[in-house]
Amino acid sequence: MMAPRFRPWLEERLPLADAIEALRHKTVPQHRHSLWYYFGGMTLFLFGLQVGTGALLLLYYRPSAAEAYESVQFIVARVPFGWLVRSIHAWSANLMVASAFAHLFSVLFLHAYRRPRELTWVSGVLLLLLTLAFGFTGYLLPWNEISFFATRVGTDIAATVPLVGRGLVRFLRGGNDVSGATLTRLFGFHVAILPAIATALVALHLLLIQRHGMSVPPSVEERAGQDPAAVRSLPFLPHFLLRDLFAWTTTLALLAGLSTFYPWELGVKADPFAAAPAGIRPEWYFLWAFETLKYVPATVAGIEGELLAVAVMGAGAIGVLLLPFFAGHTPPARRVVVWVGIIALGFMTVMTALALTGTAP
Amino acid sequence: MEQNRSRRRLLNWLLGLWGGGVLGSVFYPVVRYLAPPEIPESATLSAGAGSARLLLPNSGRVVPFGSRPAIILRTPAGELRAFSATCTHLDCTVQYRPDLQRIWCACHNGEYDLNGRNVAGPPPRPLEPFEVNVKDDEITISRTS
Per-residue pLDDT for A361 more than 50? Predict the structure, then answer.
C-alpha cells in the first residue's frame, strides 16, 4: 500500500491538514432563504464546465471568417460527440448567465452586499459583466448571419460614446467593419484575455467569501436576536458540499437533456453583403437592452437618443457596481434598494417579453 | 535625521521614476498594439450592381460597394435608385420592403423612404445616395462627387 505513506509525504510538503481543518470548521447558515446560497456555487460549476467544453472546442475550431462556420459544422456533424460538446457549451453559457443574474438579485434582495462584503459584491458584479462579455464575444465565433449582425449592432453602440467612440469601435472590431479581423480579435478576448481576468476575479471572490463567510439576511438576523435558534448552521463538509454536488449533477443532466433534445442551432453562414434578416436579435440576456433601443427616438430634447440610452445604461451599471458604498443600512434604506431592484427586474422582464413577442413600436 | 528624510524622499522619487518608466514602457506599446492599424483603402468610386432588366419595379437588392454594402432599387414608378445599405442607426444592412414601398432595417425597425430619407424608427440620418448609370443592361453605381 502506497497511500498510508503517501499522505504523510504530501502533508510534509503541502498545508493539506490546515486546509481540511479550515473546511471542517466552515459552516453555512440555515434559514428560509438558504436556497439562494446555491446560485454562487452553481455559477462556479457552470464556469468550470465552460472552461472544460471550451478547451475541447478549441481543438477543432478555426478562428477565421473563411473557416469558422465550416469548423463548427465539422464539430457538430463529424467529430464524435462534437454536437454534445458544442451544445453543452452553448446551453451552459446561457444557464451560467441566468444563474449569475439569480445570484446577483438574490444577494441584492438579501442585502448580502453590506459591510464588510463590499468588495465581494464589486468583484461579483465585475464577474457578471465579464460573463456578459464572454457571451458577446462567443456569440460571433460560429460566424453565422444572426451573430454577425448582432455583433455589428453591439459594437456600433460603442460609437455613441463621446470623443473615444470611434476608437472604441475600432478596438472592438479590429478595423472599421465587422470582418475576419473582428472574429480573430473576439476569439482572442474569448479564449485568452477574458478567462485570465475571470480566473483572477473568481479567486478573489472565493477568497473573500472564505474570509467573511456567508451573509445572513437582516430579517433573519433580527429574528435570531430574539431567538438564537432561528439561525441554525450546516457544516460545509460534507453536508453543504454534498447538496452542492447534487444540484450540479442535476444541472449536468439537464444540460445533457437540453443538448440532446434541443441542440443549439448553427444557422446560416454570415454574408457581409446580405441584408440583415428579419427577426434579428441578440442573445436573450441582451434582449431587454436591444428592445429599449427600439423605443428610444432618434433625438430626445436635442440629445441623440442612442447616446442618452447608452449613458443611462452606463450610469446604471456603475450604480450597480458601487451599490454597497451608497446604499444606506437602515431598514427604510434597505426597502429602497429592494424596490429599485424590483423595478429594474420588472423593466428587464417586460422589455424581454416585448422583444420575444416581437411587437414593434 | 533631516538628511535621512531627504535621502528617503530622493530614493522614493527614484523608485517612482523607475516604476513609472517600467509601466509606461510596457503599457504604451500594448495600448498602441490593441488599436488596429489604419489600412488605407482605395476609395471605391463605383461598382457594378448587376442586371437592370432583372430588377423589377418595387424591388431591390444589396450589392457590394467596396468593403461595404449598397442597395439598388427600382421604385414602383420604374426609376432606379441606389444608396449606401448601411443603416445610420447601428450599422445593420438595410433591405427593400415591397409591401411598405420603403427601405427597411430589420434590426431595429428603421424605415427610409425611396429617397433614402429616414422617416420612421430610430435612424438619425438619411442613407448616403449613390449615382446610378445603366449601360447595356449593366447597372453601375458610383459615389456622387
Answer: no
